[in-house]
Amino acid sequence: MLSDKDKKQIAQKGISEEKLREEFEQFKTGFPFLKLEGAAAAGKGIYVPTDEERDKYIRTWQEYKDEGHRIVKFVPASGAASRMFKNMFAFLNGDHDKPETDFEKEFFAGIKKFAFHKALCDKCKQNNGKSLKEMLEAGEYKAIVANMLNGEGLNYGQLPKGLLLFHNYEDGPRTPMEEHLVEAALYASSNGEAHVHFTVSHEHMDLFKAKVAEKAGKYEKRFGVKYDITFSEQKPSTDTVAVNPDNTPFRNEDGSLLFRPGGHGALIENLNEIDADIVFIKNIDNVVPDRLKDDTVTYKQLIAGVLVTLQKKAFEYLRVLDSGTYNHEKLEEIIRFLQRDLCCRKPDIKELEDADLVIYLRKKLNRPMRVCGMVKNVGEPGGGPFLTYNQDGTISLQILESSQIDQSNEEYVSMFKQGTHFNPVDLVCATKDYKGKPFNLPDYVDKTTGFISSKSKNGRDLKALELPGLWNGSMSDWNTVFVEVPLSTFNPVKTVNDLLREQHQ
Questions:
Q1: How many C-beta atoms lie closer than 10 Å to residue 470's C-beta?
Q2: Quick check: 423 and 429 in contact, CB under 8 A?
């Protein structure tokens, strides 16, 4: 039962009582596992273009940009970098004063190579009266880490990833946010403008805006573009309620309900407010220095070229269906396009009369579309590309996380393990219909694809509700196409030592 205090709390967040009841119910019933047809692979759901095809699609994208469409680069950047420094926090708070683990040894051995080395050295001089080199010689390892992580130092333990110094250049080090601005100029600008949108957390908003004000002019000059940089926060209304292990509401010390951010699936609301013909989506930490950007730029243009080609075709067919000037042969052609190019199949399609077939084809063509780059699996964790059954009995391409797969089904688990590709979050999306009207994206979310995870707060166990992931269930009812892209386009930074990899040097 909700008390008046509860009702007031949810009203402030913009959450309805009905939505809250649904969430409590979901904890009790759980979420169904997905029914799989198989892992997608090259030639079976994943398109591997030839060099000629690749060049053709890049030309198509260039032509599309020249027509002056509005293109936006959308970068989820709200997470704090605390996970990136998990091992160094453990060292700071541990019992040993010298590096003992392989991770700690690698960190200190490579410390000169980090792009933040100079900034860290300055903090050491300011706080400890010694240079970084002198502190290393004196064995003051913990004090060095404290200068990196804590508020009186660089505060990297609290800052967002987007504002850490990642890469060294002649003219000074760059943050991931700057690398994304550079990328936007290289493949996502049109009419001399580059639109970039960052989703950030509330406490980091001012820091991001300050950094943009400081740096954007430099890249405008360099690339001859004008930036339009916007920000948004996850909406409080997308937070989800937490429960105790017995599914009763988890309450804070003051008796209020505990709400938690609903994961990246909440960002479908932010994406829904973006006015654009084409949107690129890529995580904040997947960036490389300029010397390695060529592949990224090539393949971003390729997947965008594939998207606008497929979209054009789908729009043509929708106009034909609207006009009523088609025969059965034409319908057969549209079915082939849907099955072959958009990888969407309906096993009993032969049984449909023409009138029902038209309704079905129209529904499947007239929805948001995305093309996702997929890289070959090299044992990195993350979701993978699958052919799955949808609620309406059709089969289409989806990106799945392991939590969405029934672990007791041996066949499904082996499909997941033997998958040849995985998802690096490299998406390009078309979110308007053939009349130029934006789709309402929350209408295309499959609400049954959320999941429940186990967490704790102040030593008490709780169950949390994760919304359907942005590129998982939130885009479940989109037309989805997978294209193979090289591994060189995927260089995420999950731990601070990843910055020591050759790709980030």
A1: 24
A2: no
Domain that holds residue 109: 88-159
Please tell me the predicted confidence (pLDDT) of residue 436. 95
- Choosing from 132, 159, 186, the residue where a domain stops is 159
**Predicted TM-score (pTM) of this structure:** 0.93
The b-or-e profile of 339-361 (16+ CB within 10 A means b, else e) is: eebbbbebeeeeebeeeebbebb
How does pLDDT run across 117-167, given as a tens digit for each residue?
999 999 999 999 999 999 999 999 999 999 999 999 999 999 999 999 999
Q: Tell me: do 25 and 152 sit in the same domain.
A: no
How many helices and strands, by DSSP H and E, does the chain display? 15, 18
The structure tokens listed for 417 are 């393990």
Query: pLDDT at residue 293 above 70?
Result: yes
Number of domains present in the structure of the chain: 2
Predicted confidence at residue 172, as pLDDT, reads 93
Q: Which of 159, 191, 217 is the last residue of a domain?
A: 159
Average pLDDT over residues 325-343: 94
Q: Which residues contact 289 (CB under 8 A, 6 or more apart)?
A: 167, 168, 169, 174, 179, 504, 505
DSSP notation for 350-372:
GG--HHHHHHHHHHHHSS-EEEE
Verify that 227 and 353 share a domain, yes or no.
Answer: yes
φ/ψ of residue 123, rounded to 5: -65, -40
| pLDDT tens per residue, range 176-232 | 999 999 999 999 999 999 999 999 999 999 999 999 999 999 999 999 999 999 999
Interatomic CA distance for residues 322 and 434, integer angstroms: 11
In degrees and rounded to multiples of 5, residue 395 shows phi and psi of -115, 130
242 plus 277 within the same structural domain: yes
Domain match, 150 and 242 both: no
Does 448 share its domain with 341? yes
